[in-house]
Amino acid sequence: MGRLDKYNVELKGLTESNSAYNWTVDQEFFSIVEGQEVERGKVNVDLKVTKVSGVYHLGFSVAGTVIVTCDRCLDDMSLDIENTGELKVKLGPDFADEGDIVVVPEDKGIVNVAWYIYEFIALAIPIKHVHAPGKCNKGMMEKLDEHSAEEGEDDGRDADTTGASDPRWDALNSILESDNE
Predict the structure, then answer these.
(1) What is the pTM of this model?
(2) Helix or strand or coil: residue 43?
C-alpha cells in the first residue's frame, strides 16, 4: 500500500448519489507530495463526489493553516487559507487529461486525489505573503532599511544633479502645457 493510497477515490462502485470524504492533511502529507509552494501546515479537506451522466464531479473544499515564507523578512509565517474547486473525472480506456476532464482507466476505476488536494491548497495562497505590519523580523527589517535606496539619495542611476533640465522632457512638458491652455 502506497503512502498516498488513503487519498484514492473508488469511482466504479458509486451510484448517481453523493459520496463524501474527509481528510486532515499535515506535514506528513506535504513531505510525501513534495510540492514547492507548501511544506508545512494543517488543512481540513472535504470532498463530495457526485455522478451525473457518467461524469464524476469532485467538489473540493480546503480550509486550514499553512506555513509559508514571508516575502519581506524571509521568516516563516502562518497563513489561514480557504478554497473550493471542482474536478471532473470520467472512466475511459487509459489515463488522459482532456482539458477540464481527467480520464482514469475503467479497469481500475480509481482516482488518487492527493495531488489535486495539494493544488487546491497552493491555489489558496495569495501571490504576496507578508507578516502584518510590525510583525516582521526586526533584525532583517533593519538590514533591509539599511540597504534600501531612500528618496533623494543616489540610487545608482546617472542623473543630472546640476539642476539643468533634460531637453527631452522639456519638449514633452511644453506639449502638456499647450494642452492645458
Answers:
(1) 0.75
(2) strand
